[in-house]
Amino acid sequence: MFHKYMSELTYLLFLKIADQTRQNEQLPPGCRWKDLTEQPSLGLVGVYRKMLTQLGEDSDSQVVREIFGFPTTVFSHDENLHKVVQEIDRLDWAGVSNDAFGLIYESLLERNATEARAGAGQYFTPRPLVDCIVRIMAPQGGETIQDPAAGTGGFLTSAHDFILGRNEKPARPARFEGVEIERDTYRLCLMNLVLHQMDSVMVHGDALTEDVDKLSAPDLILANPPFGMAAGGVRPKRLDLPFQTTNKQLMFLQHIYRSLRSGGRAAVILPDNVLFEPGVGRRVRSDLLSSCDLRLILRLPQGIFYAQGVNTNVLFFQSGRPTKEVWFYDMRTNVRRFNKRNPLSEAAFKAFEESCSMIVRGAGGAASTADERLSRLTRAEIAEREDNLDYTWLTRSRSGSDIEDMDRLIGRISEDLHTALRQIEELDREILG
Question: pTM for the full model?
Answer without folding.
Answer: 0.85
